[in-house]
Amino acid sequence: MERLDELEAQSIFILREAFARLNKLALLWSLGKDSNVMIWLARKAFFGRVPFPAMHVDTGKKFPEMYAFRDRYAKEWGLDFIAEECPPIDAVDPSLPPAARSAARKTEGLKRALAKHGFDGVIAGIRRDEEPTRAKERVFSPRGAEGIWDVRDQPPEFWNHFNASPPPGAHLRIHPILHWTEADIWAYTRRENIPIIPLYLSQNGKRYRSLGDMDITFPVVSDATSIDEIIAELDSTKVPERSGRAMDHESEDAFERLRTAGYL
Amino acid sequence: MNVLVSPQAITNLQERQATRIVIVGDVDHGKSTLIGRLLYETGSLPDGKFESLKAMSARRGMPFEWSFLLDALQTERDQGITIDTSQIRFRTALRDFVLIDAPGHIEFLRNMITGAAQADAALLLIDAIEGVREQTRRHGYLLHLLGIRQAAVVINKMDKVGYSPERYREIADEIGAYLGALDIEPVAIVPISAREGDGITVKTPAIGWHEGPTVAEALDLFSVAPPLRDLDLRLPVQAVYKFDDRRIIAGRIESGRIAVGDEIVVQPGNKVARVKSIESWPVAREALAPSSLEAGRSVGVTLDRELFIERGQIIAPVSAPSPIVNGLRARVFWLHPTPLAAGTPVVLRSGTAEIRGHVSAIVEALDPADLQSAGVEAIGQNRIGEIDIVLARPAALDTFANNPLTGRFAIEVEGRIAGGGIAVELKPVARGNRARDAGELQSLAATLLPRLKEQTAAERLATLRQSIDGRIVFTTSFGIEDQAILHMIAKIGLDIDVVTLDTGRLFPQTYDLWAETERHFGLRIKAFYPRHDQLEALVERQGINGFYESREARQACCFVRKVEPLDRALANSEAWITGLRADQSANRGDMALISADKAHGLVKLSPLFDWSRDDVVAFIAANGIPVNALHDKGFASIGCAPCTRALRPGEPERAGRWWWEDETKKECGLHPGR
Ligand SMILES: Nc1nc2c(ncn2[C@@H]2O[C@H](COP(=O)(O)OP(=O)(O)OP(=O)(O)O)[C@@H](O)[C@H]2O)c(=O)[nH]1
Ligand code: SF4
Ligand SMILES: [Mg+2]
User: Fold this and answer.
1) For residue B300, which residues of chain A lie inside 8 Å, CB to CB?
2) Residue A44: which of B110, B243, B281 has the nearest Cβ?
3) φ, ψ for residue B512, nearest 5 deg
4) All domains of chain B, ordered by start, with CATH?
5) How far apart are CA B92 and CA B626, in angstroms?
6) Are residues A151 and A202 part of one domain?
7) Measured between beta carbons, which residues in chain A are less than 8 angstroms from residue B296?
8) Euclidean distance between CA atoms A53 and A123, whole angstroms
9) Cis peptide before B321 (omega within 30 of 0)
């Protein structure tokens, strides 16, 4: 079997398991390349129609291109679209370093959105190759009350049997593309002709590898103006994908702390 | 490596499948270190990583620690131990790999299994000083249980034994013999020092005497485990979607292939149909639409007739279905703190099916150190062994030898995965004992419901008897509801088997009433007893009144004394009559007048469903029916003597049962919620 077919089959299996076993699901749509692939996979899994809401937890600080993309494809893809806002930055622990504080604001926004809609499962497009604590994730990852990730006591998960009974007050994070790499995402985007936000392509010698909030996301030096060129570039680069994300780098455990507190 | 490759070459790179390799072995033998070092030597570390590892090590006052690459958690780094499994991508000129790091500490065995279960091949690592440890053997045995047949052994920390070929030979012989007994033939046994960098990508002079491959070369000897396309079709049903006018059956093909026109059978239930179409999105042009798909693919198919199919069933070729079984012998690993013992209720997750059952016997608990039996009492946490399982309803299963994917299962306890295993032997259902499937039961219940609703309790009993051919069982525990129902059955003279479950712990007054009831109605009530071997094991384990100790202990007692005998009492019957009333307790609030009991494969009728307690009391008085003498002393719902007390004024009826437990969790397992 071809590699992309295998990745796709596994992701579809996971999405269908989530839909079968949880009561109230939502897919977190961050508008980036990963969650767009995820929506595509969901449309494949359910034959064209995504049977749960796609939710954008909005910081209000995304790039204009991202909002334009969102408005267009929410309609074109027939999504049951929900936009939820994050609380103002003043409501977030001021002792955190600036980028982490920004991320914590997003965590809080997510927490409120979950409580408001009563979702017991959220589908998130994180990947193991992005960051070492994400590499330790389960496919079905239980979150305690307050969204806490108890990374020291994760349940066993094997042979495609997932733990899908979150205790009351808790929820599950479902990670259908955990096993994909950045290069896989692009190869699949190319094969399936999935639309992308133009910010990923090079303009004036720079492009974004990962899209987050405008104020804490930086472009990398690149001449890649097509997906083919992105793939060629990834094959030779050794610069990590999230190097342009400020919040990962404020201290050794910055990202772990964000994640155990409920960040994606 | 900064050469730009041609787009064609890149396409090929993208299509390479990654071989997944897990590194296992005892704690501290150097698994994470090996991965860090391997990535470094092959130039696979991202920019800045080496410097940040150096800084992390320095911050903790340690010499350079390669293990910090994968040990990403602060506690892992602070304590120098891997807690949870992790994965990292790694590529050579020819091949793509995923390296899976697994923790060695026995306390994290569940995480080791989580990682190793995803692997195509394994490196079993051994510390040259410590040699083959119990945990080394346990991991070796688990590779066997997980179906991983490709392996290499790596003997690490050779620097600490002066790179001694003698020490190498000694360990190689010992582990080789052990793995051989498990049918694992290592492709190589490689001496290395992960810390010093000997034998990983280069054969340094220190290990010049070694004739086999380096670690990197050994990796190249492994291949991706291919999908099982040559076995018979097995397609577990994940769901049936009816988003538009198509009824699409969705699932992933575990083995074999499926094509339009194939004659298939849906199991259990044995309904036959033909595959009408293979559905996909985006809708492909006619000519490009797939007409057949192979193992590994997630698919959607439609059938040529409208069958009632549901998640948990499995699609197989008519010519080669799975055996339908009601029991099996299995080799298992156990991860739950409560040991697995005879009588333990379990849920098996096989494919997409959730199959209820219980452990009927521990065949042996295995000591991995010498593969010898370690007694037959129970299988403790993080141990392995062989067990017999009895299923509550027939299921479609294969042996692991016939199909490694449908012959394995996870074991769930209270909604959390607690273990796993492989089926080594199946106990097929005797022919003629055809279980009704859930769809049939549900439609039977739905057809009868409107009529029953309008009827009196006695009419309900008669209607049920007229609507069903086979055996009908009424279970009585001599409560007032049961006595009222028995009166109706006896008065009309309905052909219904009256049975009771004698737990051995009933009140003397209940036994008196039992005898008096037989006299009164002039009939014999058939009694079912706990299995003596299970009861003896239970009392041995928890003591004679051990059920007061915990909810688990109480459920184990109820299981042996009531649930298992009930399964036998209901065997080969089509319907079950109970004395339940809707208002009896919080837990029973959502029960129904008539419903499909999928677990027992029958319909369940509760003719007094809509009666109040006062209605029952009035009926008993009007008809002069004998009742339990304890009712006069304030007892309402009467079960086992040690577990029933009188009610205080104003207490709800079931407050007198298992009064020391949480109200919402009180059911004994006879009438599970749904
Ligand atoms: N001298 C020497 N020390 C080593 C070698 N390989 C690893 N170590 C040290 O052994 C210790 C344990 O190494 P780890 O890689 O963390 O061991 P592990 O097998 O991953 O342990 P767990 O994951 O906790 O089971 C560390 O302090 C390493 O530096 C080696 O080849 N020689
Ligand atoms: S009710 Fe009490 S004595 Fe009776 S089976 Fe249950 S735990 Fe055992
Ligand atoms: Mg380790």
Assistant:
1) 47
2) B281
3) -60, -45
4) 13-219 (3.40.50.300), 235-317 (2.40.30.10), 327-428 (2.40.30.10), 438-665 (3.40.50.620)
5) 83
6) no
7) 1, 5-6, 9
8) 10
9) no
Provide the residue range defining the domain that includes A119: 3-180+252-260
For residue range B183-227, what is the model confidence (pLDDT) as tens digits? 899 999 999 999 999 999 999 999 999 999 999 999 999 999 888
Closest of B18, B36, B44, B149 to residue B101, by C-alpha: B36
For B272-329, give the DSSP string. EEEEEEEE-SSPPPGGGS-SEEETT-EEEEEESS-----TT-EEEETTSPPPEEEEEE
Q: Which of B23, B24, B33, B35 for a ligand 1 pocket mutation test, highest count of atoms within 8 Å of Cβ?
A: B33
CA-closest candidate to residue A182, choices A54, A58, A64, A32: A32
* Amino acid at residue number A27: L
Number of domains within chain A:
2
Neighboring chain A residues of B86 at a CB cutoff of 8 Å: 128, 132, 135-136
Query: Which of B72, B282, B417 faces A155 most closely, judged by CB atoms?
Result: B417
Identify any residues that bridge with B189 across adjacent strands, giving them in sequence order.
B153
Question: What is the signed CA dihedral for B59, B62, B64, B69, rounded to 10 degrees?
Answer: -70
Nearest chain B residue to A51 by CA: give it: B243
| Spatial contact of B601 and B435, defined as CB atoms under 8 Å apart | yes
Across the interface, whether the CB atoms of A236 and B2 are under 8 A apart is answered: yes
Q: Given an 8 Å threshold on Cβ–Cβ distance, is B114 in contact with A3?
A: no
Q: Where are the beta strands (DSSP E) in B482-528?
A: 497-501, 526-528
Q: What is the pLDDT of residue B673?
A: 43
Cβ–Cβ < 8 Å for A217, A244 = yes
Give the minimum alpha-carbon distance from A197 to chain B in angstroms, rounded to a whole number. 21
Q: Are residues A139 and A188 in the same domain?
A: no
- Size of the A and B interface in Cβ pairs below 8 Å: 167
Q: What is the pLDDT of residues B120-138, one digit of tens each?
A: 999 999 999 999 999 999 9
- Nearest 10 degrees: Cα torsion B346, B347, B351, B352: 180
A16·B69 Cβ contact <8 A: no
DSSP summary character for residue B584 = S
Task: Taking the CA atoms of B13, B14, B16 and B17 in sequence, report the sign of the dihedral they define.
Answer: positive
Report the amino acid identity of residue B95. Answer: R
Dihedrals phi, psi of A57, to nearest 5 degrees = -85, 105
Pairing of strands A220-221, A171-174: unpaired
CB B471 within 8 A of CB B485: no
Q: Are residues A196 and A166 in the same domain?
A: no
The candidate with the shortest Cα–Cα distance to B16, out of A239, A226, A33, A184, is: A184
* pLDDT value of position B431: 45
CB B20 within 8 A of CB B27: no
User: Is the pTM value of this prediction over 0.80?
Assistant: no
Residue B667 has pLDDT above 90, yes or no: no
β-pairing verdict for A54-58 and B248-252: unpaired
Please state, in angstroms and as integers, the Cα–Cα distance from residue B214 to each residue in A114, B31, B530, following that order: 51, 16, 60
Q: What are all long-range contacts of B49-57, with beta carbons under 8 Å and residues at least 24 apart?
A: B49/A240, B52/A252, B55/A252, B56/A252
Nearest-angstrom CA–CA distance, B476 and B454: 25
Whether residue A95 sits in one domain with residue A209: no
**Residue B513 has which token pair?**
């009433």
Q: How many residues does chain B have?
A: 674
Instruction: Yes or no: say if B422 and B456 are a contact pair by the CB < 8 Å rule.
Output: no
Of the listed ranges A156-170, B116-130, B331-345, B580-594, the least confidently predicted one is B580-594
Kindly state the tokens that stand for A145: 């009350």
Residues 6+ apart with CB under 8 A from B519: none
Out of B15, B250, B294, closest to residue A16 by CB: B250
Q: How many residues does chain A have?
A: 264
Residues A108 and A209 in one domain: no
